[in-house]
Amino acid sequence: MRFLVFQHIACEHPGIFRDFLNADGIAYDAVELDEGEAIPSLDRYDALWVMGGPMDVWEEDRHPWLAAEKKAIREAVLERGMPYMGLCLGHQLLGAALGGKVGKMKAPEVGICDVDLTAEGRADPIFAGMAPRQKVLQWHGAAVQTAPEGAVILASSPLCPNQAMRIGRHAYGLQYHVELTSRTVPEWGEVPAYACALDETLGAGALPRLRDEAAALMPDFNRAAKRLYENFLSLIRGAAKAAQ
Predict the structure, then answer these.
(1) Which residues make Cβ contacts (< 8 Å) with residue 187, sequence separation at least 6?
(2) Among 7, 117, 119, 210, which is least packed by CB within 10 angstroms?
(3) Which of 88, 109, 140, 160 is catalytic?
(4) At a CB cut-off of 8 Å and minimum separation 6, what does 42 contact?
(5) CA separation (Å) from 27 to 4, 49, 64, 113, 180?
(6) DSSP of the chain, one letter per residue?
(7) Could you list the pLDDT tens digit for every one of the 244 residues in the chain?
(8) What CATH number corresponds to the domain at position 31?
(9) Is 177 a catalytic residue?
(10) What range does the domain containing 65 cover?
């Protein structure tokens, strides 16, 4: 089994999922799109994982590679039926690539927040064994405002009705972050765009407070990530068996 990972800034990588993949002997290739790395053929991959980043999905004039990335997402999801997991920007890219609308929120969602599974989310295999309400890390000012045709909304919050969605049988987007490690918040706090959003939302000097709050919840975050990972692997195996 081999994963393809799209990254948009060096500090937003698969995080704790790297440990899970390594422990299971699953290879993955990370493509740093913001550094000009080319998207490879999807032929040799079993899943596509798309991470977050400080850019917005509509900024193709500033980041021309976004057009090629959306094309690759359409190929993966629509043409190949490839299992897909998008986090934050990766969630928004899934929405934009498949015909949904992504736009700025009235107010950013930054910090530790509650997300509630919808009835469809509670029944979806990606969230099997997970609590219907979860504390998660948010760090975004844009959202999928209109989901693509046929999308199923799996989770929501008061500020962002589409916190998670499924398209088809195997393509998932999560607006929030589940890949967290002890280094995530400190590293992201060094990104100017993220630091500004954090201070504007939670007040000046919020980074140490968020770091400590995230550290206290890290065991819960990592347990949820492991369950999500195991559920996603089950979907990949099911998709491979169905294709045989």
Answers:
(1) 11
(2) 119
(3) 88
(4) 4, 48, 72, 75, 76, 80, 82
(5) 9, 13, 28, 32, 20
(6) -EEEEEESSTT-S-THHHHHHHHTT-EEEEEEGGGTPPPPPGGG-SEEEE---SS-TT-TTT-THHHHHHHHHHIIIIIS---EEEETHHHHHHHHHTT-EEEEEEEEEEEEEEEEE-HHHHHSGGGTT--SEEEEEEEEEEEEEEPPTT-EEEEE-SS-S-SEEEETTTEEEESSB----TTHHHHHTTSHHHHHHHHHHH-TTHHHHHHHHHHHHHHHHHHHHHHHHHHHHHHHHHHHHHH-
(7) 999 999 999 999 999 999 999 999 999 999 999 999 999 999 999 999 999 999 999 999 999 999 999 999 999 999 999 999 999 999 999 999 999 999 999 989 999 999 999 999 999 999 999 999 999 999 999 999 999 999 999 999 999 999 999 999 999 999 999 999 999 999 999 999 999 999 989 998 899 999 999 999 999 999 999 999 999 999 999 887 777 6
(8) 3.40.50.880
(9) yes
(10) 2-243
Catalytic site residue from 8, 13, 140, 177: 177
List the catalytic residue out of 12, 69, 109, 179. Answer: 179
Tokens of 232: 């996603």
